[in-house]
């Protein structure tokens, strides 16, 4: 089971656990909503039944989330801890559920089933607490972030900050990333393939294997924010 998810938002880390897949916003959604739906917000929502996670999201943001109780019954949310755009946070909460969020009004989302996902993927099991699996804290997340950031910043074509891409990475007991899978591809398949290649084989501290597999969300950075300024200007 996937145990951790974090996002590199302008290469800033966000983490939660344990998702199975990812649903991302579309370009059309990016221009909708009020300031409340765009302003970064701090979230501290643990893995739990989806219905209560969505209510916690509404309490944290003041944004209404409309859903049918029968639609979310039996589904779990990976939870989320960190500061992030509320729209992306909601999509993280829906990871692995087969559900999507859509604007219903300026400050309200409605949760609906995704027919394609429903047909191809099983529903996520109810949230469980694993006492033997340590949570991915900010220090551990920072270690993984630094390695991934360095690998992606080393090539012009893979530098994060200008595109949105969800990935799942598997880490072996030696700390090597042995497999990378694009969960929610961007609009550039060639770049996605380069990102996968850049991360496959990357060496992390051996202790990070405990969190494997890890789901990574790359999202666009704010205008004028560049975290790869010191990287080499070359492509493979």
List the helices and strands and how they pair.
Blueprint lengths: L3 E6 L2 E5 L10 H4 L10 E5 L2 E2 H12 L2 E3 L2 H4 L3 E2 L2 E5 L1 H8 L5 E7 L2 E6 L1 H6 L17 H16 L11 E7 L5 E8 L4 H11 L14 E6 L17
Parallel strand pairs: 1-12, 5-9
Antiparallel strand pairs: 1-2, 3-7, 4-6, 8-9, 10-11, 10-12
Helix pairs in contact: 2-4
Give a description of the structure.
The protein is 26% helix and 26% strand. The protein is of the alpha+beta class. It has two domains: 35-120, Phage tail protein beta-alpha-beta fold; 138-219, Fusion Protein Consisting Of Minor Coat Protein, Glycine Rich Linker, Tola, And A His Tag, Chain: A, Domain 2, CATH 3.30.1150.10. The strands form four sheets. A five-stranded mixed sheet has the order 2-1-12-10-11, covered by helices on one side. Strand 8 and strand 9 form a beta hairpin. The longest helix is centred in the middle third of the chain and has 16 residues, at 138-153. The model is unreliable at 9-33, 118-133 and 231-236 (pLDDT under 50).
Architecture of the largest domain, CATH level 2?
3-Layer(bab) Sandwich
Total strands: the figure is 12
Q: Enumerate the strands of the largest sheet in spatial order, edge to edge or round the barrel.
A: 2-1-12-10-11
The helix-strand sequence is EEHEEHEHEEHEEHHEEHE
Which labels suit this protein?
disordered C terminus, single chain, Fusion Protein Consisting Of Minor Coat Protein, Glycine Rich Linker, Tola, And A His Tag, Chain: A, Domain 2, 7 helices, 5-stranded mixed sheet, 236 residues, 3-stranded mixed sheet, Phage tail protein beta-alpha-beta fold, alpha+beta
């Amino acid at each position: 089971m996937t145990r951790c998810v974090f996002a590199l938002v302008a290469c800033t880390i966000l983490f939660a656990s344990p998702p199975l897949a990812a649903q991302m916003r579309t370009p059309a959604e990016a221009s909708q909503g009020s300031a409340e739906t765009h302003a970064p917000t701090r979230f501290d929502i643990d893995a739990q039944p989806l219905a209560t996670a969505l209510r916690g999201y509404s309490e944290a943001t003041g944004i209404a989330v409309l859903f049918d109780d029968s639609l979310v019954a039996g589904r779990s949310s990976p939870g989320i801890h960190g500061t992030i755009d509320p729209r992306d946070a909601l999509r993280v909460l829906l990871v692995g559920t087969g559900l999507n969020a859509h604007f219903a009004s300026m400050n309200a989302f409605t949760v609906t089933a995704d027919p394609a996902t429903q047909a191809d993927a099983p529903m996520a099991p109810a949230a469980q607490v694993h006492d033997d699996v340590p949570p991915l804290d900010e220090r551990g997340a920072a270690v993984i972030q630094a390695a991934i950031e360095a690998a992606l910043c080393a090539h012009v074509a893979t530098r994060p900050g200008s595109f949105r891409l969800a990935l799942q990475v598997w880490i072996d007991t030696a700390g090597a990333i042995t497999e990378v899978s694009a969960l929610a591809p961007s609009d550039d398949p060639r770049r996605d393939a380069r990102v996968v290649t850049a991360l496959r084989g990357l060496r992390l501290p051996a202790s990070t294997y405990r969190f494997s597999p890890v789901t990574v969300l790359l999202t666009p950075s704010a205008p004028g924010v560049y975290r790869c300024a010191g990287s080499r200007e070359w492509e493979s």
